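Incident log, support desk, overnight shift.

02:14 A customer reports that sequence design results differ from what the structure should imply. Their input is reproduced verbatim below. On-call engineer (initials T.W.) acknowledged and began investigating.
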């Protein structure tokens, strides 16, 4: 299952995506900005520790791995992350997994491994969440694959046209009229639905005080 969460900075798209993704029993996050630091999470900063984190997820030693890379995002970090996701889809297929990639403009989601993982995934077990600022940031392949679109306010006509063509005219008009942290959800079965209660999906992505702090895999 693929979900796109689209909106400008400070509207809440990362929070919404995380709120949905954390409902699944295993979650891995590609977090280039280092925004997500939740209690009990496992933090990886290198490709090697990210791979170790995936193994920990599979073995039940953690339920959440957040990868904030030290390596170059597009050429090193994301290809390594994508290879782990593909391996999971093919070799650990029976194990449910949620994959959240925050701000996809930092990376190349058209990476062969990531693209193949999305096309081969079991929609009942594997759930992809991608966030970005604009619909045009999303490669056409991923637009075609997406099951759900979650749209915060959109004002540029070019972006509204993408929504009209891929979703519906109703979705585009609903997104045009939004304000604050409200958003609309769209899928081809149920059409457009509006959500205007941000308190219902608010999550503090990095609490200052935590009884169970994150585990840093790269800190000796």
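02:41 Re-run completed on a clean worker. Output:
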């Amino acid at each position: 299952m693929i979900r796109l969460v689209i909106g400008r900075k400070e509207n809440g798209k990362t929070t919404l995506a995380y709120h949905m993704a954390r409902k699944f029993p295993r979650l891995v996050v590609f977090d280039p900005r280092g925004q997500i630091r939740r209690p009990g999470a496992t933090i990886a900063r290198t490709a090697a520790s990210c791979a170790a984190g995936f193994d920990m997820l599979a073995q039940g030693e953690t339920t959440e791995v957040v990868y904030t890379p030290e390596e170059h995002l597009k050429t090193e970090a994301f290809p390594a992350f994508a290879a782990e996701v593909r391996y999971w889809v093919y070799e650990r297929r029976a194990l449910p997994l949620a994959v959240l990639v925050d701000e996809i403009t930092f990376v190349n989601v058209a990476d062969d491994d990531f693209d193949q993982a999305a096309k081969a995934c079991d929609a009942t077990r594997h759930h992809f969440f991608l966030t970005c600022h604009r619909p045009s940031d999303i490669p056409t392949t991923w637009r075609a694959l997406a099951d759900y679109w979650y749209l915060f306010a959109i004002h540029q006509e070019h972006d509204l046209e993408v929504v009209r063509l891929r979703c519906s005219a109703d979705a585009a008009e609903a997104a045009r009229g939004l304000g604050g942290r409200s958003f609309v959800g769209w899928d081809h079965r149920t059409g457009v639905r509006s959500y205007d209660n941000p308190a219902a999906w608010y999550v503090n992505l990095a609490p200052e005080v935590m009884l169970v702090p994150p585990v840093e895999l790269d800190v000796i």
